[in-house]
């Protein structure tokens, strides 16, 4: 089973343990780089430019880029681990680190990698660790925030009760729209969307010893509220039909419609 290091492709420059050997016949050494979700043209273009920049700086190394859709990436990699056919370098979610390390499919960072990881804030370092060892270097991270339409809502909600009340008011004053949106489809991003409410309520997914805490009163209350946004309060469309990316598209379409209305002559 091939061992991997999860990191940004730029980090290949500094991780001595990951540098490839010369290829057969004296040609350039080849490494395979897996990046999920490159079916999006703008993302593919960005990665291709990065690879060209890397190869120009290191003419003795040739990079082969591999990719499948975000939904298929995890299973694709696991199948490769089992078959002995897996990439040398992976760009993926930090949520994969624990499972891949437990499978012994990836190897810890060396001293130079640890030095690079130490440049990041502690929460990002923690996301790359499993059982005391580090397995990756952050390339990016996301922040959670509440996005609202200022043309419909004067003051953003500050509590869960506010969310319900504001959403109901929006629906009462505007036909054909919902006051709020959440994700509930079977998708990898749905759990992180729900976890926002767990953390807001003082809950946690695991304790410091690794015990699952999703049955705590705080987590149960968060799940009940999340479900009741649809079942009881009726302020969101059926969440089973939406994942995080779908919800973003709905918002983008709404913003596009607002811009169109402003541009059209009265």
TrEMBL record:
This is Extracellular solute-binding protein. One of its GO terms (molecular function) is maltose binding. One of its GO terms (cellular component) is ATP-binding cassette (ABC) transporter complex, substrate-binding subunit-containing. Keywords: Signal, Transport. Residues 1-22 form the signal peptide. GO terms for biological process: maltodextrin transmembrane transport; maltose transport. It comes from the Bacteria. The keyword Transport applies. The keyword Transport applies. Belongs to the bacterial solute-binding protein 1 family. It holds the Pfam family SBP_bac_1.
